[in-house]
Amino acid sequence: MLKENYLNKIKDLPETTKQFGGLVFILIIIFTSFSILNIMFGGGDELVRKMKLEEERIAQEKKLSELISKLPSGILVTFDGTDHYKLTDEVYEQVCKVTKLIPQRAIMGANFLNFRAHEIYTINGNKIDETFVKWDEEKNKCFAGFTVSGDNVGVNESITVSGEALSFLSTGIDTRVYYIKNF
Known about the structure:
Elements: H1 2-12, H2 15-41, H3 44-70, E1 74-77, E2 85-86, H4 89-98, H5 104-112, H6 115-123, E3 130-136, E4 141-150, E5 155-170, E6 175-181
Parallel strand pairs: 1-2
Antiparallel strand pairs: 1-5, 3-4, 4-5, 5-6
């Protein structure tokens, strides 16, 4: 009896009130559903942390990109005695951190000082497995290198050649290691 009374009262309400009540009911269901999903799958705090890290990385990359665009095109060196553009210590560190490429010229120069690496590099069809450019905080120097292996031609040997990156090549778009001192 009470149920029928209650249903009759709802039926007697104006149409706009019924629609508004339905809207509120649907919103409550939606918020409840998302709250349950957030509790189950969560990750909200971790996601925010990851997003902040990504934003910082993008801001740093943009800052370094602006630095590269301000550098003159050509060879950038870290030492005196040449006509090339000399990098300050601070700019040297920033250029090192933004540099990702090691062209074949720098690889071949470093290979000539490591005969076995040159031999494997030649045998495997000039294939480089990995390249790296890293800033060493302790020594305040930039180190670049690469790994060659003969896995693709049956030589079970892998050699990593690395050394100090003494000069870079600025193209105006990016920077590349120009010379690796590995002796």
